[in-house]
């Protein structure tokens, strides 16, 4: 059985890599990796780390590219590849322009689509934008839905997805995180300067386009925290998107305790994540990754599609108001029992065995279609 994996961003590479590596030595499955190049350098580093060589690299990344441009340019190329290769299944993951495009084309080619990380919802089409709508569109295009949690499964059932086509498997990002932590050494000489025994490390990431007009509020909260808490050190890896960098340059002033750095390789980022006291982020994946290391997460967005983490207590949805963000950080810094309670809450997103469950699902699928 031939399986095509369509990916293009760093998070997609991280989540699909454990599945691809589990399939490498299985003679029943041939894998085909199609890389749109939506996040060129960031994804290349991840694929190299996991020793994955794409069969096709479309190199679609351009300066200031828009999501719709990725879709526009990828459609004819991926369509030609699928017609030539004729895979039996197409795997996509998450909620990006690449995800939607892969599912859209496979549907037109009448190839069953398997959606990894299915069923996440905020039910607000503009938060996060455009990811929420990509998720919902891919659900309509997909044949099979591999959901991280029972809540994701329930979301899909409410949308009339056939329960027989939904499997709860966890999220493979946890598999990737544990693999990196145990097998790939970080560039410690470059980042160990930020990990100090007498400091509480806050890892900050902000890059969502719908958050651009909130960045001043978010960053002012961080600046005021570092002004009043000398024990705090902030590490801020900045997304390479020039639009993001321009916005950040307007909203974040220099501060001796805030280190604005270039994007880190995944092993180094994992090292910092493990040593962080808390995370402040508008990212999606970090909401799943940090709890695996018992690190509390403050979400600086108006909504989250990962509601299980909020309910479990691993995530705190603070929104984008400066005073609320500042107060939430203050509570975690000063209330030891609150920090401990948040850090020790059970991570609902997986146990590191998701890729094995997905391979087992594929074996059962193959068995049904051979008989």
From TrEMBL:
| Alphabetically ordered keywords of this record | Isomerase
Q: Which domain of life does this protein belong to?
A: Bacteria
Q: Where is the UDP-N-acetylglucosamine 2-epimerase domain?
A: 22-363
Enzyme Commission number, as recorded: 5.1.3.14
What InterPro entries does this protein's entry cite? UDP_GlcNAc_Epimerase_2_dom, WecB-like
- TM region positions: none
Give the top-level enzyme category: isomerase
Recorded protein name is UDP-N-acetylglucosamine 2-epimerase (non-hydrolyzing)
Q: Which family does it belong to?
A: Belongs to the UDP-N-acetylglucosamine 2-epimerase family.
Q: What Gene3D superfamilies does the annotation carry?
A: Glycogen Phosphorylase B
SUPFAM superfamilies tied to this protein: UDP-Glycosyltransferase/glycogen phosphorylase
- CDD domains from the entry? GTB_UDP-GlcNAc_2-Epimerase
Which source organism? Answer: Terribacillus saccharophilus
Q: Which Pfam families match?
A: Epimerase_2
């Amino acid at each position: 059985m031939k399986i095509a994996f369509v990916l293009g961003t760093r998070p997609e590479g991280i989540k699909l890599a454990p599945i691809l590596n589990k399939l490498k030595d299985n003679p029943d499955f041939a894998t085909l990796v199609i890389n749109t190049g939506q996040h060129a350098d960031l994804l290349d580093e991840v694929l190299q780390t996991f020793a994955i060589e794409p069969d096709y690299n479309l190199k679609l990344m351009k300066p200031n590219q828009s999501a719709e441009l990725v879709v526009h340019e990828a459609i004819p190329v991926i369509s030609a590849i699928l017609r030539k290769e004729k895979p039996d299944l197409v795997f996509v993951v998450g909620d990006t322009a690449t995800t939607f495009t892969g599912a859209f084309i496979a549907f037109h080619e009448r190839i069953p689509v398997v959606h990894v990380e299915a069923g996440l919802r905020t039910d607000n089409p503009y938060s996060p934008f455009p990811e929420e709508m990509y998720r919902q569109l891919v659900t309509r295009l997909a044949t099979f839905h591999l959901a991280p949690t029972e809540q994701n499964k329930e979301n899909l059932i409410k949308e009339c997805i056939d329960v027989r086509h939904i499997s709860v498997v966890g999220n493979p990002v946890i598999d990737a995180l544990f693999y990196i932590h145990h097998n790939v050494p970080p560039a410690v000489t470059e980042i160990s300067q930020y990990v100090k025994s007498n400091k509480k490390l806050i890892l900050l990431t902000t890059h969502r386009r719908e958050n651009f007009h909130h960045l001043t509020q978010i960053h002012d909260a961080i600046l005021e925290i570092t002004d009043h808490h000398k024990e705090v050190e902030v590490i801020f890896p900045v997304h390479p998107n020039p639009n993001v960098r321009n916005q950040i340059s307007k909203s974040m002033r220099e501060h001796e305790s805030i280190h604005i750095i270039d994007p880190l390789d995944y092993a180094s980022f994992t090292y910092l994540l493990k040593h962080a006291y808390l995370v402040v982020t508008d990212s999606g994946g970090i909401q799943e990754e940090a709890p695996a290391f018992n690190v509390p997460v403050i979400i600086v967005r108006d909504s989250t599609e990962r509601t299980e983490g909020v309910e479990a207590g691993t995530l705190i949805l603070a929104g984008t108001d400066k005073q609320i963000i500042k107060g939430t950080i203050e509570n975690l810094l000063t209330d030891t029992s609150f920090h401990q309670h948040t850090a020790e809450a059970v991570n609902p997103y997986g146990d590191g065995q998701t890729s094995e469950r997905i391979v087992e699902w594929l074996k059962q699928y193959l068995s049904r279609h051979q008989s």
